[in-house]
Design goal:
This protein folds into 2 domains: about 10-125 and about 290-300, 3-Layer(aba) Sandwich (Rossmann fold), CATH 3.40.50; about 130-285, Rossmann fold. Helices cover about 45% and strands about 15% of the residues. It has helices at about 15-30, 50-60, 70-75, 85-90, 105-115, 130-140, 160-170, 185-200, 210-215, 235-240, 245-250, 275, 285-300; strands at about 40-45, 65-70, 95-100, 120, 150-155, 175, 205, 220, 260. The longest helix has 19 residues, at about 285-300.
């Protein structure tokens, strides 16, 4: 059977995304299962991680598999050893590789040269594991996805790219408000519009946060300064100052709107303290759901899905 990589949300069909959500629900209720017994996952990370590392490690542990964490210092990916060689070596030891890389090109090289599946655990272009978790959290909270409206406020970054594609796959209307110069890339927007046309969803890109949030069912934001962008911190803070999600902005959303954030959050920057701890906030449910969705993802990719 041909290996199944996950480098982009686009690698999964709409039916596969739906199946992943259902599987995650079943797995969450079950808690522990031997579905990945004797399977091994290598965690090949160039960037620091809390939720991604712990959720993958615990997913393997609770499903009776094993996870091996490989730090940047140990591997020196692309410096001490080419990514292509690392992929070939790890393929002889493990059943799957989850890679967290600075460059999407490194991820692509790993997938091209590995004979085992490669999962994007975050790159500079996409974060599909986070996006699938976000859609699952909305599904769990609201029950039905088509026709809902999700407003994303902030940088058109890797999280925004994957969330746009995932929302479009399942028929969610996606709106994104970003300052000029920080929009999602045109090729990502076009791909999302293609998926939305097939699912009945829609996509709106604007520079007006109020327009994006008006009557939305979900309001979502992410940090203004991601890892690797520290040199741009002061400029980004100036450019994004009117894009904070506070109670005034959230009040424009639907009455029962959810607030979401992938964490870590910079409280007082992209989100006010009283919003992230508001009763409408499901950010810690999101964080927990990384575990359950990644269990379902690993079960699917390693051929153990139900």
């Amino acid at each position: 059977m041909k290996k199944k990589d996950l480098l982009s949300v686009a690698d999964f069909t709409a039916d596969e995304v739906g199946g992943l959500l259902e599987q995650a629900l079943l797995i969450k209720r079950r808690k522990k299962s031997p579905m990945l017994k004797e399977k091994t996952l290598a965690l090949l990370f160039e960037k620091a991680s809390l939720r991604t590392r712990v959720s993958f490690e615990m997913a393997m542990c609770q499903m009776k598999g094993k996870a091996l964490y490989l730090s940047p210092e140990e591997v020196g990916l692309g410096r001490r050893e080419p990514a292509s060689d690392v992929a070939r070596v790890l393929s002889r030891y493990v059943d799957c590789i989850a890679a967290r890389t600075f460059s999407h090109e490194t991820l692509r090289l790993l997938a091209e040269n590995a004979s085992v599946p490669v999962i994007n655990a975050l790159s500079d272009v996409e974060h599909p594991c986070q996006a699938f978790t976000d859609i699952f959290t909305i599904y769990e909270q609201r029950g039905n996805l088509p026709g809902l409206t999700l407003a994303y406020i902030g940088d058109g970054n890797n999280v925004a790219n994957s969330l746009l594609l995932a929302a479009a796959k399942v028929g969610i209307n996606f709106r994104i408000a970003s300052p000029p110069g920080y929009e999602v890339a045109q090729e990502m927007l076009r791909l999302g519009e293609k998926f939305a046309a097939a699912s009945g969803g829609s996509i709106l890109q604007t520079d007006d946060p109020q327009q994006a949030v008006k009557d939305a069912d979900v309001v979502y934001t992410d940090v203004w300064v991601s890892m690797g962008q520290e040199a741009e911190r002061d400029k980004r803070r100036r450019d994004f100052v009117s894009y904070q999600v506070d109670r005034d902005l959230l009040s424009l959303a639907g009455r029962d709107a959810l607030f979401m954030h992938p964490l870590p959050a910079h409280r007082g920057e992209e989100v006010s303290e009283n919003v992230i701890d508001d009763a409408r906030s499901v950010v810690f449910e999101q964080a927990e759901n990384r575990l359950h969705v990644q269990k379902a993802l690993l079960a699917k990719i390693l051929g153990k899905g139900e």
